[in-house]
Structure formats: structure tokens, C-alpha cells
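Hi F.,

I've been meaning to write this up properly since the lab meeting, where we talked about keeping a consistent format for the predictions we share between groups. The idea is simple: the sequence comes first, exactly as it goes in, then the C-alpha cells exactly as they come out, then a line or two of notes. No screenshots and no reformatting. I'm using this chain as the first example so we have something concrete to point to.
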Amino acid sequence: MFILSFVLEDWAIHELVPSPRRRTSAVVLVASSYVTWTYQTHTFSNAVETLVVLWSIVMIQRIIDNRYRSSLLSSALLGSLIAFGVFNRITFPAFLLPPFVYLLPHFLQKPFCLFATASTFLLTSSLAITIDTSFYSPSGSSIVQLLRTNPIITPLNSIRYNASAANLSLHGLHPPYQHLVASLPLLLGPALLLLYHIRRPTLSILSAFSATFLLSLIPHQEPRFLLPAVPLVLSSVRLPNSAVSKRYWFGTWFVFNAVLGALMGIYHQGGVVPAQLWVGQQQQARGTGVTEMFWWRTYSPPMWLLGGQEVVTVDLMGMNASGMMERLTLAMGNCEEQEPRSVGLVAPTSSVELDIWMEGMRQELLFELLWITRRHVNLDDLDLEADGIRGTMSRVVGRRGLAIWKISRVCADSQ
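Output, unedited:
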């Protein structure tokens, strides 16, 4: 992924920025952004989406600029890129809305280009449906029969899932201004100030703006959803003209990226892998007596790190606290009907909802701390509406950490 980003992202920027002078500054800005050397070097679907968005806009720009030729090859490549982008992430079309509007007059004048785009889109989509249906269906079934009766169309399944408020609440709900006041400043920092110097909106900046607006309409919002906006914005802004202003801005830019690079590259969800490794080692040594682990408010735990150990892993994602406690107590059983058993909980120490148990205000359950690391920050748990900026930072950063607790029910006869 590092090589892909290094080659394809820089190449796309060279295509999108015609001025050699501005192209150099754009490449420097993108390369020096912490987003490039944290998110874009990992195989996140958002990182893949960034490359597909960039090259889709490159193809659109080529088609628009080539007024006297049909651009059939670029149109065909665009259709495949759009299909790949949609099947990779359902948020992809939000970035292509304005560029595609600019492309419509060309398609009306040259319908063969539209036919080429539509044909490769359908062919690539059919291939994706065939692969998904084959992969996720029971082995031994006829692929032809499955495609006729029960094809797996990933974008439609994603739309159905995300259309449910109950499903989104499992991941966390956010106010509509979350992207504007939290995500963009977190991704771009001082580069946002340079938006005032944009003289003429480009396809890239229009793409970034439209995606920010459209994705803000979705109740669940994370900064990574706007990853493609980072190179789009950085390749469109102009640096300050004054040498003094430019020097101060670059100083601020480098400090911002050094701090955020450490935060996002080391601390953000940084305890997930060490915690899962510890769970696997303890299970191998039979050290905890817990065979069911509940993960709450973390990235999905990588199962392969358990090393084949038999541990029932339940990913509660961003479920609310009451729902999480209900799942835990149900798994433990009750004192009257059966012998209660212990379960494990992996959760950020910034979760204030657990304080009533930690501080002994409630005593129905016993929380025994098994493992903890301070190298973990949960930036997906920002509640600016309830806590404000200062309160949120105090909780998320000041109480940083990831812990594993063994939870047991306290019964009357065991007291």
C-alpha cells in the first residue's frame, strides 16, 4: 500500500495540478501530511478509496480537456474506476458528484464516451458481484445458480445496513457538524486557513466540499471517511505570498503533522493489537479463566493474533453503555438459575460510564483489572456536543488507555 500511494497518489497530483510551481508545493504538502504516512500506508478501504477518487477525477479531467477527440479509453477506465470505488466504499459517489456534473455536457455531445463508461461500469460491477457471491456463499453451490437466485451485491447491502439508525447507533451517532468542527481540522489543521486563498474552485476542491456536505448528512461520522479530501484540498490551496507568513505557516504545519503523526500513528487505537496478543498468550497459558471476550469502543480485534486459541470474541463496536452492560450480564447468567461465569471486557479507560463500577458505587458486578496500557487513545469517542472541546480532550487524552477486566457477578451467597 505504501508503494501504491507513493506512486499513484503523486502521479495523480501531477496530472491534476497543471502549473509546475504549484505542482511542486502540492506534492510537498501531500507528502508531509501525517495522513499520507499513517492512513495511506495501510490497507484501509478509505486509503484505497482515496486513490480511486483521485484517479477518477484525473480521468474526468482528461475527458473534459480533450475537446476534439472522443477519449474512449479514458471513458472506459472511468467506468471501471467508478464501479471499483462503489464496491469498495458506498461513500465513494459523494466525492464524484460535482466532477460528474461537469462531465455531462461531454457525454451529451459524444454519446460513445457515455456508452464506454456505462459498459465498463457494468462489466466491472458484474465481476465484483460474481466474486462476492462466490466468496460469501456456501462451498459446493453452483455459482450460476447463486447469481440467478441470491446474488450478493455489496453496495446494496451496505445501503440497507447504513439506512438503519439502530445499526448506526452501534458505531456511534454524531451531530451533523461533526465533520466540519472535528474531522476536517483533525485531518488538515493549518491547511484549512489556506482555503481563503483559493481564487477559482477546481474539480478537486469541489469534490472535497461536496463529499464533506453529503457525508455530514449521515449520523455516523469518522475522520477517516474524509481521507480523500486531504490530497484534494492540499493540491488546490495556495501557500501565503509573504515569505514571513510562509515560514510561520510551514512551521505550524510541520508541528501539527509531527504531533498528529504520533497521535494517529502510535496512540489512536494503539492498544488493540497488544491487547489481543495478551489475550492469546493468556489463553494459551490458561491464565485468566475467561473464554469470552467483549470488545467495546475499539477497532474490530484482529482474530488471527489469537494464534488459534479458542476465545469467543464479541465486537460490541460503539454500542451505548446500557446495551453493553445488558450483553455482559446476559452472558454471565444469574445467581438464581445457574452458576454465574466470568467474562472479559476490553474497553478504553476514557469510558466514564464504567466509573460507577470502578469506584464501588454499584456492587452487583466485580471488575478485576487484568491488563492495561496507556498507549491508546480513542478518537472515535469524541462527544463535542455533550462535553465541549475542553471536556472531550480532557477525557479522551487525559484518561487515555485500554484495559482488560475480568467481570464476575456478585451473588448473595458469595459475599
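Notes:
The chain has a mean pLDDT of 87.
The two ends are 55 Å apart (CA to CA).

If this format works for you, I'll send the rest the same way.

G.
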